[in-house]
Specification:
By secondary structure, the chain is of the alpha/beta class. The chain is built from 7 helices and 10 strands. Helices cover 32% and strands 28% of the residues. The strands form 3 sheets. A 6-stranded parallel sheet has the order 4-3-1-7-8-9, sandwiched between helices.
């Protein structure tokens, strides 16, 4: 994928989708390295990370990450997750951020040249097409190397470029922490 030093870049991270992707690939993201990598590719206008938070719990495992992101060059966009009980009596958490991501992408489109979307969710295909109609190049970062693939075929076909995240682990990945080693 070509990057140009004067192009205006935006990063959009679908937090839950990226988490599932890298968990499947068995590595973690160093968000500081990720931000620095793309700062070196052009003029980084915005770096957004989207996630839903379970607010009724005393401790949310995602809260420390969101706080770190907010203080380290990212714009964390959150909303409360909804808790519901399914028909089998199991508690389910729902926190879809697709609408927020799409609205923000389309709002920012006149101010950027290149959007990098960290998600494999096919629901973004139509938004990618709308961005392209406004002259924005779109690169999708996800994986085809997992079983099943975490990237919807329709999103990959619509994007201007695809980056296989499994090949990027040396650039912004860090080994997964083994909690047993910390005892």
């Amino acid at each position: 994928m070509a990057f140009y030093p004067d192009e205006r870049i935006a990063l959009f991270v679908d937090g839950s989708n990226l988490y599932s992707t890298v968990k499947t690939l068995d590595f973690d993201i160093d968000y500081g390295k990720l931000l620095e990598l793309f700062k070196g590719k052009g003029r980084l206008i915005r770096a957004n990370y989207y996630t839903a938070l379970v607010e009724e719990d005393d401790y949310s495992p995602i809260r420390p990450l969101v706080d770190w992101l907010d203080y380290n060059g990212w714009h964390a966009v959150t909303k409360p997750a909804k808790s519901m009980v399914d028909r089998d009596g199991r508690r389910r958490i729902k926190g879809d951020m697709d609408a927020e991501i799409i609205v923000d992408m389309l709002t920012l489109a006149p101010h950027i040249d290149h959007l990098i979307l960290f998600s494999g969710d096919g629901d973004f295909r139509i938004a990618v097409e709308a961005l392209q109609k406004q002259g924005v190049r779109v690169t999708v970062v996800s994986t085809m190397k997992s079983k099943p693939a975490m990237l919807a075929d329709e999103l990959r076909r619509q994007a201007d470029a695809f980056i296989e995240i499994a090949d990027m682990d040396k650039l912004f990945g860090r080994p997964r922490r083994n909690l047993e080693d910390e005892d």
